[in-house]
Structures are given as structure tokens and as C-alpha cells.
Q: What sequence folds into this?
């Protein structure tokens, strides 16, 4: 049955994903809502899952448990434990059958992204993912500028290796803009990175 | 340059992955080495990573941290925390660009695999993975029988739904054998599941 508006025009269900130019117009900044970058990404991933666009999760923070107590009639209580450094990136999951793996970092710096934010073992993990055919990238959020960029692993390696060879210890803002892809922000997906990946495939 | 054996025969580098029938002949049981099922899977994944066959990791156990202390001159100590129930499966990663996601369970039972070993939210997660085009399965290890089977998500759902509809609360051993794929065991990869997945693609 065709549903019609009172003026006779056919009713058509709108797409769940607004086109990017629209998203750019109705810019919603999660920073204005007092959300952290991590919360904004989690909200985005929840939206992708709800809309069956992708299944991407943040991995739990690894903890080294040393001592556990079992008080009577209650569940186990961890009494001594230490945070371990993650050996992989923070987020991974699946989009259109493909493996997606990324790390997210933010900086208050307006002119560059300091590479000390990334650990050597995370770079090794990203190389392993690429070797196995996965899609890996870094989401860089410039908090003061309210801008987010996606930089693919291969581009990130270039700057990482430049540092290893004694070059600068950061990626300049201009280099991020040139080599990265700007991530739009829409109401339900404050860090709306999936449409950028779609262009790749 | 061709390298030759003293008998004049050409030297050819052997494949890193022995064919399955060979693996079956030289059966190495991790249980005999006092290894847990989890350790055996981790060893297998380490081997896959080293040989650049795949990049698959176990996710950290999620912990809800309640109280953290910062003793002088030392790193943060977690003084009160609780284990949370994982909302996803335990293992995920990438193989030939494809997203791989699985849960691993063992039972001492010789005649069936009790479904109480699996939680509803894990089934929901597996459905989400399938919807997004990922490959999801369950590794079932019968400890007493020293046998491991791989059962794809779609087959697992059948038995899960049979239980939901008031049917039996387990999958019989025969059903596992019929609907699952036997996982071979080789020295470096005691739970050698990758060759089974290769057949799928």
C-alpha cells in the first residue's frame, strides 16, 4: 500500500544515514555537549550497531589481577590489581565483512599531533593487522579546534618512521589535514567515520 | 641461486602449514602437555601471528574498577574491582582481510555440550557480527575425549533456538560431530582452526 501525504505526494522512508554535506551543515560538536572523545566514539559505535551498519566495540582495559577475595555470600572482589599497557589498539570490529581496527587519540595542541601519544607496540599491532588484510587507522581529535581526522595506517607509518629516523616527534596540523580525512559529526554519530571507509572499498 | 642437497636434489622450502592429513597423523594433544584450552588457543594465535597467517587476539576480561590508590613513587594500584560479564565473545581478529569472531568453551561431558556455557548476550553479539558480514563460530572442546570442534554461528543458533522453544538444554555429541568441523592439532598450533576457515572462503 502506498502511503500519501495530504497533498497527494508519496511518502518515502528517509535513509538512516544523512549525506555528509548535510551532516557538515548541521554540525553537532560533542565537545559542546560535554562529551569526551571516547564517549563520542562509543555513542557512534552504539548507533552503528543499532542501525546494523557495523559491529565495532572498544576493548576492555587490560588489568593484571594479583589478589582476589571471596567474601561470604557475595561475588569475587579484586583487592590488588594493576593496569597493564594494552598490546593492541582500543577499537575493533566488522564493517561489511571487513576487519576494522583503530586507535583514538586527542590533543589540546592546535598546531600538531605529538607522536608520544602512540606506543611502539600499537604500531606493531597496526602493521600486523595490515599484513593480515585488515583496515587500520588512527582517529585524531584536536580538542581546541573541534576537528577530527582519520589517518590510515600506511600514512601514520610514514610519520612514525620519520620520527624513528631522528625527524620531528609530531605530525603537524597541516600534515594531518593533507594526509588525513576529515570526520564529520552528526547528532547520533558524533564521530561519523564509516562513510569515509565506504569510499575506500 | 638454486640450493641442492648433496644428492643433487633441489632444496625447496617447506610450507609453514602442514596439510591436515599430516596434522592428523602427528596428533599432538595439548591436554597431554598440561595446557588449558585457553592456553592452547593463545599459543595457536601466537603462531598464526608469528607466521603472518592471521592477527587474532583474546580480549581482556572486563573489570569494573571501584577504588584506585596512588602510593607514593609507584604506579596506580586497584584496591577494589569486580569482574564484569563480557558483552561480546572472547576472541576476534583478522584473517585474509575478513573479520573473525569466536568464543571457546570446554566441557568434561562426553555425551553432550551443555548450552548453559553460553550466555544470551554472546548469542546476540554473534548475530550482530553475522549481520555485519563477519565470520563467527564456537570452538567446543571435549576434554575427556580430547576432541575439538568448530561450529559456525548459524548452526549454533539452531540449537540455541531449539532450547529457547523448550527443547533440550544441550547439543548432543553426535549433533556436534555432524554439524561441526573437527579441529586438528599440530605441534605449534594445538587448536589449528584456520585451515577449516580457508575451506569456507
A:
Amino acid at each position: 500500500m502506498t502511503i500519501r501525504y495530504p497533498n497527494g505526494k508519496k511518502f518515502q522512508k528517509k535513509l538512516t544515514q544523512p549525506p555528509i554535506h548535510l551532516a557538515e551543515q548541521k554540525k553537532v560538536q560533542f565537545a559542546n555537549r560535554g562529551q569526551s572523545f571516547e564517549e563520542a566514539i562509543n555513542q557512534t559505535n552504539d548507533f552503528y550497531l543499532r542501525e546494523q551498519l557495523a559491529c565495532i566495540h572498544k576493548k576492555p582495559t587490560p588489568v593484571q589481577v594479583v589478589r582476589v577475595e571471596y567474601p561470604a555470600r557475595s561475588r569475587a572482589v579484586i583487592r590488588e590489581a594493576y593496569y597493564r599497557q594494552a598490546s593492541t589498539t582500543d577499537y575493533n570490529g566488522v564493517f561489511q565483512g571487513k576487519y576494522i581496527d583503530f586507535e583514538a587519540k586527542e590533543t589540546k595542541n592546535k598546531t600538531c599531533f605529538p607522536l608520544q601519544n602512540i606506543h611502539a607496540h600499537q604500531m606493531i599491532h597496526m602493521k600486523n593487522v595490515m599484513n593480515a588484510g585488515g583496515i587500520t587507522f588512527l582517529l585524531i581529535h584536536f580538542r581546541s579546534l573541534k576537528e577530527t581526522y582519520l589517518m590510515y595506517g600506511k600514512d601514520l607509518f610514514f610519520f612514525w618512521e620519520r620520527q624513528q629516523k631522528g625527524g620531528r616527534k609530531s605530525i603537524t596540523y597541516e600534515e594531518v589535514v593533507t594526509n588525513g580525512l576529515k570526520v564529520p559529526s552528526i547528532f547520533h554519530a558524533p564521530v561519523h567515520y564509516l562513510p569515509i571507509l565506504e569510499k575506500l572499498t
In short: Chain A has a mean pLDDT of 87.
